[in-house]
Structure formats: structure tokens, C-alpha cells
Design brief:
This protein is mainly alpha-helical. Helices cover about 65% and strands about 5% of the residues.
Length: about 220
């Protein structure tokens, strides 16, 4: 978005110095300069190799810039709504509890609680896990009985996405979830499969925390 807001055609980027483009990206994003420099080099190389379907003076470039502005306005609108959700969540005890979990920020805590709703409507942890669609899919036949395959994915997709984002951060630290992740990896599981298992464990922990009013241990 930062790039498209200023440059509407590849020809506007082709002759840019990587350092110039990197400084601009660093000033408009949350990324460090070294990361932006690496990306700037890739972007310039791409623009020099690609063949655009229109000229810089084309009406398509004008329309493109208008679309970018519309998207930016929509993003700002969504951020306002998100802030309202966070402000509402701050009055909830469970919100403060979730913030004690490594890797869960104000944003994630508020959105996870919004997707879960009233925790008391789930009689047990596995009910919440099923609601999120991260319970194992059980396959039964004459040859295999109770063979656990992929997760069902029949539940709340948004909640699954939020849990995955949380796990991406949590497994980087030193905590029970990270230990569980490393244990799963040691058994030969692929990283993504291990993270799904961690999502299941994290949601069960969240359920216990909210039910008993305790912080993350």
C-alpha cells in the first residue's frame, strides 16, 4: 500500500536507487531499513523485468490511484472499528487474563474474545475446540477405527485464524505452548501441523483461564 500510494506505474520505480526506495518504505511502514532495502532491490528488479500493459499517462493509472485511496480509507475505517472493539473488551476480566499469554496483544485478545462470545455457553473445553473447528477429524472404517486425520474446519474460521496468529508469536518464546510445539516438532511433525496442535492446546488453556479466572502460567 505504501508503494502503490506513491508509484502508480513500474516505470516510476525502474530507475530509483534502492536506498531511496528503502528510506521511503521504512518511513511509511513498521519495517526496519535493512528489510526495506532488501525488498526495494527485489521490487526494482521486478519492475525492470516486467512489461506493463499501459503507459504512465494511461487513465488506468489514474483509476488505480483512486482505488488505492479508497482502500486506504476503508482500512482506516476498519481500524476505528477495531479500536472500538478493544475499548469494549477492556471492561472484561477475561481480556486482562488473555493479555498474560505470551504473543497475544490488545488486538488479538479483543478479537479472540469477540469471536468466542460468552464462555459459559461452552460446557467443556472440547466444545469450544469444536466451535473453532480445530478438533481432530475422526475416520472410521472396517480397517481403521478412530484414525485421526486433519482438523474438521467446520467451526469459526475467523477464530482459527486469530489463534494461528497468536501461535506464530507464542511458540517463539519460553512457555508451555512453545515447549509443546518443540515437543511435537521432535516427533517429526511438520511445523504447520505442530502449530495446529498448539492452537488446540492454547484454546483449551484460554477456556480454563476464563472459566477459573486465572492468569497464564
Amino acid at each position: 500500500m505504501a508503494l502503490f500510494s506513491k508509484y502508480h506505474h513500474p516505470d516510476e520505480i525502474k530507475n530509483k536507487h534502492p536506498e531511496t526506495l528503502a528510506k521511503y518504505l521504512a518511513s511509511k511502514t513498521c519495517h526496519h531499513y535493512n528489510y526495506c532495502l532488501k525488498e526495494a532491490i527485489n521490487i526494482i528488479e521486478y519492475c525492470n523485468e516486467c512489461q506493463s500493459g499501459c503507459s504512465k499517462e494511461s487513465i488506468d493509472c489514474v483509476l488505480f490511484s483512486e482505488v488505492i485511496e479508497q482502500i486506504k480509507n476503508k482500512v482506516e475505517e476498519q481500524n476505528l472499528y477495531l479500536q472500538k472493539i478493544i475499548d469494549l473488551a477492556k471492561d472484561l476480566l477475561n481480556y486482562e487474563l488473555l493479555l498474560t499469554i505470551p504473543g497475544i496483544s490488545n488486538n488479538l485478545a479483543a478479537r479472540i474474545l469477540a469471536e468466542i462470545g460468552n464462555i459459559s455457553r461452552f460446557p467443556r473445553a472440547r466444545s469450544l475446540v469444536a466451535y473453532a473447528g480445530i478438533d481432530p477429524n475422526v475416520y472410521q472404517s472396517g480397517e481403521n477405527d478412530g484414525l485421526h486425520l486433519k482438523i474438521t474446519k467446520k467451526g469459526n474460521k475467523e477464530l482459527r485464524c486469530l489463534l494461528y496468529l497468536a501461535i506464530q508469536n507464542t511458540v517463539q518464546g519460553n512457555n508451555v505452548i512453545a515447549d509443546y510445539y518443540r515437543k511435537k516438532i521432535a516427533t517429526g511433525l511438520a511445523s504447520k501441523v505442530a502449530k495446529v496442535a498448539c492452537m488446540n492446546k492454547l484454546l483449551r488453556i484460554i477456556y480454563s483461564m476464563c472459566k477459573n479466572g486465572v492468569i497464564f502460567q
